[in-house]
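S1.2 Input.
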Amino acid sequence: MAERVSAPSPTVLIVDDDHDFASAAADFARARGFTPYMAHSLEQSRGFARLPAVDLLLLDLELPDGNGFDLLDDMDLPEHGQIAIVTGQPSVESAARAVSLPVVDYLIKPLCPEQFSNLLDHAAARARPPQARAEARGGMIGRSPAMRRLIDSLERIAPSEATVLISGESGTGKELVARAIHEFSGRSGAFVPVNCGAIAPDLLASHLFGHERGSFTGAAARHNGYFEQADRGTLFLDEITEMPPALQVYLLRVLETGTVTRVGGSEAVDIDVRVVAATNRDPQRSIEEGSLREDLFYRLADIGLELPPLRSRGDDALLIAHNFLERLNIRYGTRKRFAAGTERVLLRHNWPGNVRELRSAVQRAFLTAEGDEIRVAPGFRKLAPVHHDATHVSFSVGMTYAQIEQEMLLKTLAHFDGDRTRSAQSLGVSVRTIHNQLARLRESGHDV
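S1.3 Output.
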């Protein structure tokens, strides 16, 4: 899942093999509202230099594995912000080369605080507009071509009345995109999110469409469903393929007529609702498997959006990771930073869980770090077992398939603290299957 983020702060990349100078410069810049990145070699700096996000590059010329000018030769300089050469060994040759490059200052160590402060102020004032910096429109962050195309598409389609079907892997931020569509649309009503897989199938109709008093046992009063709650706003139907086929028929009628009839009622209530639906499955395959009606698909997909996985978004993972870290520092009043080499690890990982996995990895590294430097270990999926029996399923000869399935289901639910959606994802089944299995267990006398 993608995460809502604040507008990014100006950024400074400090490339210097003097760790004390780099750390002091980073602290100075951070205190003035910058997000600092540090690299202590030419190799480390190249990972950051690919990002067109650096508003100020503070570059030492003498590095362990080469000359700072080698980094500038690899960069598309017009795409970057201000560049400052900072050296303790000035020479006429290096100064002449520096001033021949665009947007370059040539400074001599040690830097005085006033000089560095002016440099930061100038870089912040020249920071590129949001379209050229890390995109944060609608709460989304990223500057990869895929994200730029997505955000441009959202701004074009949002003001329309068209329904939208969002597809994409788990963790890519489908709800965030739906919220952005609502924000860009200018609709005056509420944004109402509904996870169709998290509500028991027999209760979903009442939740969506409302019910009249006495329509079923326990219906002590009239209830306005999510459609009515989203009047003049946007209703987001996540995991649309988990909706029972019978309800899909009724949903199609609601979309066609613009009216909703509460369960147990006869009056058609006019509604003005923009519907955005989402699925982490391939829509065409869902149609073939029968979990999504073809006629509903075409009604929902006036416009179809497929969200790119994080692994195809280039260096966006770095931007998002630093944003997560910055927010954690603000929340806990700390000044933690990524250890050297962490950015390279972040870029190399495939991120099968996308932004949701990245957020968990950064938060886990932040909370478990003993000092101010944190090291992210992607790919961590299993919690350390508290008790052997709680995390292992035991099979024995003579057990029936039903007993094996029951053992697997109950242990998986316990592992995920009763979260049926995560349990279903782990087992590779639908949430509806989880509900049905639990219902059968209750009918057979099990306390679940």
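S1.4 Remarks. The longest strand covers residues 82-87.
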